[in-house]
Amino acid sequence: MTDRVVQLVEDILPGIPLQVVSQGAEAVVFRTGVHPYTAHPSLTNPNQFIIKYRPSKKYRHPKIDASITKSRTAGEVKFMHRLAKAGINAPNVVSADFKRGLIWMEHLGEVLPSGEVSSFKNHLWSVERTRSPDECVSEDIQRICEQVGQLIGQLHHNDMIHGDLTSSNIVLQKKVPYLIDFGLSSYSGLAEDKAVDLYVLERAIQSTHSMYAYKYNQWLLKGYEAAYGTNKQNRRKYVEVMGKLEDVRQRGRKRSMLG
């Protein structure tokens, strides 16, 4: 499928060098060094860009498929625009073609010594592979974890839900965390939805960093709490989310026990 999709995107964007980064169920992600309309963009990373493409689904009626592609692409771009307005760390949108399902955005993240992109997950793995156990729970790691938690707290404080909040969908740029991939994102003021977001990340940390997961998750929630501040109304919202998080954990444990 990827070869066909690459050819489609090359036909849409002739002359633009493309490198496949990842392929998911809904979209294929490319990297390019070309900005669509300027040689000197004012961005955090002015040299590399991501192009996200939603290919058509042959099992859907063409008119329905076109409508879904346009709606989901527009929804993701609007979500990212709202993130920017709220001052929440995320890639800047450069350009979009809703009809064709294309989003051209800023590329964030760096290359780790291992050659991997500096996602939150890969950064922690890199530390765990190359440093002593004490260094894996150092003040530097604690600071990053708390910053990630605070970033998620800012997202939820604005009633925005990521929808796929794994440690792979958080990247570090100069050790500052940024959220990426908003294909499943939504808006909700419900504490339950925010708790599910947190639970997804908590489980991701447990499955990929089991030896240090307890500490990492502690620090994430410490940063998350800090994002709510000391305002009484915000504190009530925080307490409600934490209560729902425990409910979600209990449901998760029951599912695990029942298989």
Automatic annotation (TrEMBL):
Q: Does the keyword Transcription regulation apply?
A: yes
Pfam families per the record? RIO1
Task: List GO terms (cellular component aspect).
Answer: chromosome, telomeric region; cytosol; EKC/KEOPS complex; nucleus
Report the EC code(s) recorded for this entry. Answer: 2.7.11.1
Q: What is its main location?
A: nucleus
- Which compartments does it reside in? Chromosome, Telomere; Cytoplasm; Nucleus
The chain's coiled-coil residues are none
Q: Which UniProt keywords apply?
A: Activator, ATP-binding, Chromosome, Cytoplasm, Hydrolase, Kinase, Nucleotide-binding, Nucleus, Phosphoprotein, Serine/threonine-protein kinase, Telomere, Transcription, Transcription regulation, Transferase, tRNA processing
InterPro entries membership = Bud32 (IPR022495), Kinase-like_dom_sf (IPR011009), Prot_kinase_dom (IPR000719), RIO_dom (IPR018934), Tyr_kinase_AS (IPR008266)
GO biological processes? tRNA processing; tRNA threonylcarbamoyladenosine metabolic process
- Domain Protein kinase as annotated: residue spans: 15-259
The protein's annotated catalytic reaction(s) are: L-seryl-[protein] + ATP = O-phospho-L-seryl-[protein] + ADP + H(+); L-threonyl-[protein] + ATP = O-phospho-L-threonyl-[protein] + ADP + H(+)
What the record says about family reads: Belongs to the protein kinase superfamily. BUD32 family.
NCBIfam families documented for this protein? arch_bud32
Function, as annotated, reads: Component of the EKC/KEOPS complex that is required for the formation of a threonylcarbamoyl group on adenosine at position 37 (t(6)A37) in tRNAs that read codons beginning with adenine. The complex is probably involved in the transfer of the threonylcarbamoyl moiety of threonylcarbamoyl-AMP (TC-AMP) to the N6 group of A37. BUD32 has ATPase activity in the context of the EKC/KEOPS complex and likely plays a supporting role to the catalytic subunit KAE1. The EKC/KEOPS complex also promotes both telomere uncapping and telomere elongation.
**Which PANTHER family does the entry link to?**
EKC_KEOPS COMPLEX SUBUNIT TP53RK, NON-SPECIFIC SERINE/THREONINE PROTEIN KINASE
Assembly behavior: Component of the EKC/KEOPS complex composed of at least BUD32, CGI121, GON7, KAE1 and PCC1; the whole complex dimerizes.
Designated name of the protein: EKC/KEOPS complex subunit BUD32
